[in-house]
Fold each of these.
Amino acid sequence: MKSIRLLPLLFVLPLLALLSGCDKKVNEEAEAEATAPMAKGIEQLADEVQNKGQMSGNVPIEPEQVVSLTLSVPTPAWSLTIDEVWVVGQEMWALATLHENTEGMVAQVISTAKASVTLKDVPKLPITYYVIGKTFDWEKAGPTVKFIKSKAEIEEGLNSGEQVYPKQ
């Protein structure tokens, strides 16, 4: 009688061994499938590390970039200079100053003041221009140009950024 009770057990043991081998294969396939995206991500990270210096986060680094600004001014006596450029968050801030030469006589004709600087190895980001020194109130230069009274107005943002021109 005892041998009859053991008989089903003898059939079940090989079946369990066969099934556990299948489970192992299924587990290995599932593990490979689950880790494939991670392996791909590691490969991409390795490529990014090799290309460091050509990218900043997801922003390409430009070997040379010209930052320029042109404004309409009341007379040719006005000049414009770009004093500093900062990377603040995901944009560049260019600080410019308008100067009026008050010596001598000048023609009373609307003119343009231009300034530009060439930057090396900086991220390609949108630029916002902050202009100090405007005393006339008819110029509307567009959404990327903001007229401010002093650098102190944007000091908090500058403190969170990095100055890229002039290099310090």
Amino acid sequence: MKTRSSDGPPAARARQGVDGRASPEAVEKRRAARLFNEALLGRGPHGGALDGRTERRRKRLLRELGAAAAGKLDLKPIDVLARVQALLAIGEPVESLRKAYPPRRPVEVTDVVVEGVRRIHQAYGFPTEAYRFVGLEDAVLRRAGLLGRQGEKRAPGPGPSRARAPARRPGLAVTGSRASAPARGGVG
């Protein structure tokens, strides 16, 4: 008779997470060790050769985009955006993405589309390059507030940029000139 992993000794159960996988501490240790090794070996997290798991994921995502372009796989626009974002995050060039999944025909610019882009970007923070793969051109992105006047990006991350002045904390403001302040240190 096989025993389940939760039937083991208490120490073994304590090392496992709720879902039967390794504890969050063990996962974080592996991630930290992987990042440390990449840094010391001269391969950044996005440069150089990818580790085996990331390379397999990259190939799978490109294969899925290719199958969707050929009509063999039905991907919704949000699925395309998610795959393009993941590939860009691991350093895949936009040119290879265009080869695997040529950008779709431009969609008609309506208020509903603009509001949808605004809300999707607020929720997910997709890179502006990704929207072109689902047929959204600069005019839509500009109206949604994701691009500036001539196609430049406004702000990385979700939502339009609204720069605020840093909050002032009481007691930290300099009220007089430093030259009039007495010197510290001793009598001299």
Amino acid sequence: MNLPKEIADLHAADKLGIAFVGIQLFQLLSIVEHQGQELVDREGIEIPSRSGSTIAYLHRYGRTSITDLAHFLGMSHQLASHRVKDLKSHGIISEERDPDDGRRTLIALSKTGKSVARKMESICQDTEAEFLILFEETGVDLFDALIKVKSALAERSLAKRISQRHQAST
């Protein structure tokens, strides 16, 4: 099996039950990042695969602030800053002062970053095609399911759902 070393037994946490869906998502994320890193390494790209979304955003939308990047990707400013700092150290991202607001720093892909983005785009196309095959193979469109569950929980939290279910049963 091609698993990250921290997942010694792929199905051990299954015994905890559905209430612990978070651990299943965490393990799936670990597996996808681990296997994604293999794809990135195979192309000779020396960055963490989890930075792919940052590169894809900058490739698609151009220069932006770290705040806007963090907002778009749904991550903390601190995590976005850490990823940007790492990509900057690899020469993937450049920084410049916002011409409209000198207090604000904008980030963009460097020339090297644009080259990496093109390679990452190819990896993403292959990955997307393989995920579609995997979803067909398993009978689960995981991408669609995750979007629906994410939206449903944003609309009505687990706590609210449980309270409403308890109220309806009394």
